[in-house]
Amino acid sequence: MRLVWCAGVAALSVCASTVAAVPVPAGGTRAVPAGSASLSTAFDPAELKSALDGVHRAGMPGVFAEVRDADRTWRGASGIADLGTGRPVTPGMRHRVGSVTKTFTAAAVMQQVERGRIRLDAPIGDYLPHLVPGERGRKITVRMLLNHTSGIPDHIRYAFPSLQKFPSPDTPQSLDDNRFRRFRPAELIEMGLDAPAAGEPGALPGVYSNTNYLLLGQLLERVTGTTAEEYITRHVIQRAGLRRTGFPAGPRIKGPHPRMYEALHGLIDPPRDYSLYHMSWVMTGAGLVSTMEDLNRFYGRLLDGRIVSRSSLAQMRQTVPVIALDGTTIDYGLGLHKVVTPGCGTFWGHDGTAWGAGTRSLTRADGRRQMSVAVNLTRWNTVDSSGQPRHHPIDDALEAVYQRAMCGDEKDRAENASQDPALLP
After folding, report:
1. Contacting residues for 395 by C-beta, under 8 A, at least 6 apart
2. Would you give the DSSP letter of residue 62?
3. The pairing of beta strand 337-341 with beta strand 345-354
4. pTM
């Protein structure tokens, strides 16, 4: 359960509370179907609250989460939303959820696959010859964009050129310069295509790239006749019944939200507030604002076959090895990340960052257990002389949150670990 969205230097490309157990909102998660394997999933609210407090004590300004266990929901928060005023973070705050957006975009693409307007294994050049011309457009398929095997590199280091100077003191400069810039998708895609290729189309392992999902946004616009953001809002966000999720129209976030602090591996000290930021540089790849409650509802409904068909969901769950932005290799499907936790089962979801904001949302394969966690400080690890991130107490504290949120208490983990592995979802 390694924290992909903050740990690595390569991830420069993007990456006091009320606690209660309440009934799951309508349409949240469903019971395990008859005959399915069932793991013990009880949670202890006191343990979860203590784990969040541990993250704050370790140096995180604010952390908030929602955990669902079949018919129970726990929401909690710890720490500060605004270091200037001391305003506390609360569980229902809206947050930039970064690359969690990719699952929404992938679901929208799969809906168009079901309608016959997109073919997964068709060359992207058939749809967008003006953006991906020539041999590359003939070799790269829609599926390769979805599972990051296109070989197109990430564009972020070219949109923010000072990042290429890491770890120079000038590294943060382009983050500030581009706060209010409105990038056009075509210019960002061109940056990715003009950069040295990350690999051959279809080669394994794939290489994670935000440019892939900008192309998918343009593909949606091409086949639906509307903007990708509008299509995703109408046919994914609204279909899932999400009330506090959406693409921001400008640099501001509407509604209660924490300020979002970026440390850039110690190069910004003290960490700087980037909560006011135009997300045009990665909109259909990482632009959404949401809540932890909405994310759990979304993944619950997606994995229950209510956003895309069961056959589309099966395609989304076909994983390949992909090199993540922190250099680790992950199991990645079509907009879904697979996480296997010994003794706890198989989880599906995504994690993501924007400048200063981190989110992780995972749902167990049987649908009974869900976890969404948000933090308002990113890239907190300083680096050593070789450029590798140093271990930080926040890393251990977040790991403890994930263990308790995904696996229950110590008794549950022991019971689950003793089961026949073939019975794990």
Report:
1. 3, 7, 381
2. E
3. antiparallel
4. 0.90
Cα–Cα distance, 223 to 219 (Å, whole number): 6
pLDDT of residue 1 exceeding 90, the answer is no
Exposure on the CB side of residue 4, measured as CA atoms within 13 A:
25
Q: 341-373 burial, b if ≥16 CB within 10 A, otherwise e?
A: bebbbbbbbbbbbbbbbbbbbbbbbbbbbbbbb
Q: Are 259 and 276 in contact (CB under 8 A)?
A: no
Give the max Cα distance, the chain: 59
Reference 354, options 240, 273, 236, 254; nearest CA is 273
Asked if 321 contacts 240 with a C-beta cutoff of 8 angstroms, the reply is no
Q: 351: which 2 tokens? A: 């994690």
At 262-310, the pLDDT tens digits run 999 999 999 999 999 999 999 999 999 999 999 999 999 999 999 999 9
Q: How many CA atoms lie within 13 A of 134 on its CB side?
A: 2
Beta strand 87-88 with 72-82 is antiparallel
What is residue 19's predicted lDDT score, i.e. its pLDDT?
29
Q: What is the mean pLDDT of the chain?
A: 89
Distances (CA, A) of 238 to 246, 286, 293, 301: 10, 18, 15, 12
CB of 24 closer than 8 Å to CB of 71: yes
Give the containing element (helix H, strand E) for 283: helix 283-286
